[in-house]
Amino acid sequence: MENILKIFISIIILYGLIHFFILGAHKSKVINDTKDSFYSVGTEFTPPIFSLGFIDGHIHKDDNGNVYKMHPLYIGNLALTSGKIVVGEPYYFFDIEPLDIALKIGTYPVYLAEVIIKKKNLVVDKRNALVKVKLASSPAVTWKYKASFSVDGGTGGYFDYQNLKEIISNQNFDNFIDSVMKEFGTTYTIPKPFHEKHHLYHQYKNISYKDSNIIIFSAGWGDGVYNSYIGYDSEGNVVEILTDLGVIWWDPKVYSRS
């Protein structure tokens, strides 16, 4: 009996170690390399929803009878005092490197594509589907996969990297994020035509910080992994950074260009 108990305890310990070192590895907060993605960094895509999603009233239908009506919003300018942008979940900004793209110091408009989801003519949900930082006036026609980030707290955001480093060096990151998320949590109101309690997955907030600001938003279906892309116009110029919050599915195999 004693030997059986020892074997049982050993199995439990072994399971815990496997769960921690193998399964736990998949909960990394920052994903910037190809081993954590279904496709390589730099892979080019042309999903129509990346453009159509920012046309007010655009309708998308899926095979399950859901109808998605797009509602784009301008949610403020993002100030980049260093020309380096951090994309990820604010709770884990301290562990995130900026996107590998050099931008001019300045302010850039940010747009959010909300989607109202109906089934059998009834509103069943409202989500944030896409977010983009517009870097130039010309429209993007192709997008290249750049990086991904994982979410455990249902939020994503954009922030200037130099300001982030300053916060971390002054050891006040936790206080900063607590204040940001507290302010973020006060923005929620139930939009019409909702008549009962609903989730918080259509929030957004533009919060000032010194000479810069942080723009945060509810992330798609909540926890998960979300991809960011660099958008190029017909001349090959970089014109936007787009984050797909995974609400409207598109097939990478259909819209990839190698």
Explain what the structure shows.
By secondary structure, the protein is of the alpha+beta class. It folds into two domains: 1-28; 32-257, no CATH class. The chain is 20% helix and 39% strand. The longest helix is centred in the N-terminal third of the chain and has 22 residues, at 2-23. The radius of gyration is 20 Å and the shape is globular. The relative contact order is 0.20.
The major sheet is characterized as: 10 strands, antiparallel
Order of helices and strands: HEEHEEEEEEEHHEEEEHE
Percent of sequence in beta strands: 35-45%
Q: What is the distance, rounded to the nearest whole angstrom, between the alpha carbons of the first and last residues? A: 61 Å
Oligomer: single chain
What is the approximate shape?
globular
Question: Helix coverage percent of residues?
Answer: 10-25%
Question: What is the CA-atom radius of gyration, in angstroms?
Answer: 20 Å
Class from secondary-structure proportions = alpha+beta
> How many β-strand stretches?
14
Question: What number is the mean pLDDT?
Answer: 80
* Count of DSSP H/I helices: 5
Question: Which stretches of 5+ consecutive residues score pLDDT under 50?
Answer: 4-36, 195-200
Number of domains: 2
Please provide a brief summary of the model:
By secondary structure, the chain is an alpha+beta fold.
List descriptors.
alpha+beta, 2 domains, 4-stranded antiparallel beta sheet, 5 helices
Write the layout of secondary structure elements.
Layout: H1 2-23, E1 30-31, E2 44-45, H2 49-52, E3 59-61, E4 66-80, E5 85-88, E6 106-119, E7 122-134, E8 142-151, E9 155-160, H3 161-169, H4 173-185, E10 204-209, E11 212-218, E12 224-232, E13 238-244, H5 252-255, E14 256-257
Antiparallel strand pairs: 1-8, 2-8, 2-14, 3-4, 4-6, 5-9, 6-7, 7-13, 8-12, 9-11, 10-11, 12-13
